[in-house]
């Protein structure tokens, strides 16, 4: 596996690697480190090989399609990784390093599996670093889209996180048979439910867990709180996470007169975050609609559902599909605070709807949206490929 980031932590990469290990494969992850981690170690049976990446090389990744500094770093590193190791397949995580992985796949005559965690060209449209003056000079959307098409056509197999993403990759000219969907579903053994953790009956608590950025849509939530308060006086909002947009959200809450309803809890370790979820009444996924968010599969939705928390989500295509199919919550128009407030009041004011949504979400994870089921798609991909 080739990963252009730190490992651990990366839930998706870890889940996939462990699933392959459990089925009898040996897994090595080649990744970079900026935090001084050991250049070699074994983690839960996964062999990890790391190379420290200089800051200037790391920052050059934004312009990797125009300047080869970042790719050259990886080519040099991987040349040493592949020397003396008899690998049977290369599994590249995310689009940027696809060309490097495919180069070695052709050289070694082994298959390359391209695992698209994100809609990378669309994600760059909303990323802060690519929207600066320098970022726009170094990173071209058109060039990334051309690169994505070339890489998906050259890869032997492709993994996407949702059906909507699969459809988009097919539209680039790819054979549907070479694309496998491996969603970010709940890994149930990692999720510890504690029956003692219950919502405080004095409040109705909404929780959001994740990054604090503009495109997460939290400004819509904060603007809707004042209207919700008119119907549900004891409403409160927990924001678990960090990001550069935090100060703007705090200022917005002050201007809207709802600062006393919003608690910024900062970044929390996973166990604490999940404990807070269990103490909430409903969980939020307020992402603004975009090409990226319409094709996403956030881990949080399935974690919320497993905790029997009704999900209040914006109407991003893939999120709305899951919620509609399962009955696990309610959706609203992504940019409309009034629609969010109406949806939230509807859910929290109807005990039968609230209970039913939480129950249906939990059952959907138990019966369908869990990693024990999802990982079979990954294992079958390798099994089918080995037979072809």
Explain this structure.
45% of the residues lie in helices and 16% in strands. It is of the alpha/beta class and 388 residues long. Strands 3-4-2-1-5-6-7-8 form an 8-stranded mixed sheet, with helices on both faces. The protein is globular. The protein starts with a strand and ends with a helix.
- Anisotropy-based shape: globular
- List the uncertain runs: none
For the biggest sheet, the summary is: 8 strands, mixed
For the secondary structure, the number of strands is: 14
How confident is the prediction overall: mean pLDDT? 93
Please count the helical segments: 16
- In terms of DSSP E residues, the strand content is 15-25%
What pattern of helices and strands is seen along the backbone? EHEEEHHEHEHHHEHEEHEHEHEHEHEHHH
Helix content: 40-55%
- Give the strand line-up of the largest sheet: 3-4-2-1-5-6-7-8
- Oligomer state equals single chain
Question: What is the CA-atom radius of gyration, in angstroms?
Answer: 22 Å
Ends distance: 21 Å
Structural class: alpha/beta
Please describe the structure with a list of short key phrases separated by commas or semicolons:
45% helix, alpha/beta, 388 residues, eight-stranded mixed beta sheet
């Amino acid at each position: 596996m080739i990963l252009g980031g730190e490992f651990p932590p990366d839930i998706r990469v870890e889940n996939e690697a462990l699933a392959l290990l459990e089925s009898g494969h040996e897994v090595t992850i080649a990744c970079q480190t900026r935090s001084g981690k050991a250049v070699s170690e074994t983690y839960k049976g996964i062999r990890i090989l790391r190379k420290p990446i200089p800051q200037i090389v790391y920052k050059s990744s934004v312009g990797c399609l125009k300047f080869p500094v970042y790719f050259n770093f990886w080519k040099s590193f991987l040349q040493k990784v592949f020397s003396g190791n008899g690998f049977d397949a290369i599994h590249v995580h995310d689009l940027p390093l696809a060309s490097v992985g495919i180069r070695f796949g052709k050289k070694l005559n082994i298959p390359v599996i391209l695992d698209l965690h994100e809609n990378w060209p669309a994600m760059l449209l909303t990323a802060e670093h690519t929207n600066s003056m320098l970022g726009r000079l170094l990173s071209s959307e058109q060039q990334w889209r051309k690169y994505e098409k070339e890489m998906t056509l050259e890869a032997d197999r492709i993994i996407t996180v949702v059906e909507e993403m699969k459809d988009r990759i097919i539209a680039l000219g790819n054979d549907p048979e070479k694309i496998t969907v491996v969603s970010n579903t709940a890994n149930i053994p990692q999720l510890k439910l504690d029956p003692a953790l219950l919502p405080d009956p004095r409040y109705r608590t909404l929780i959001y867990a994740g990054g604090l950025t503009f495109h997460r849509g939290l400004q819509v939530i904060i603007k809707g709180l004042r209207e919700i308060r008119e119907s549900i006086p004891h409403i409160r909002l927990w924001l678990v996470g960090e990001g550069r947009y935090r100060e703007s959200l705090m200022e917005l809450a002050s201007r809207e007169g709802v600062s006393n309803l919003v608690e910024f809890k900062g970044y929390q370790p996973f166990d604490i975050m999940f404990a807070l979820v269990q103490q909430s009444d409903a969980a939020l996924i307020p992402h603004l609609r975009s090409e990226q968010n319409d094709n996403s599969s956030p881990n949080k939705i399935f974690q919320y559902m497993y905790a029997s928390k009704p999900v209040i989500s914006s109407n991003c295509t893939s999120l709305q599909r899951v919620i509609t199919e399962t009955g696990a919550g309610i959706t609203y128009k992504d940019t409309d605070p009034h629609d969010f407030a109406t949806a939230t009041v509807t859910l929290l004011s109807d005990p039968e709807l609230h209970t039913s949504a939480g129950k249906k979400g939990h059952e959907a994870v138990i019966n369908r949206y869990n990693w024990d089921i999802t990982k079979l798609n990954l294992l079958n991909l390798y099994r089918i490929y080995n037979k072809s």
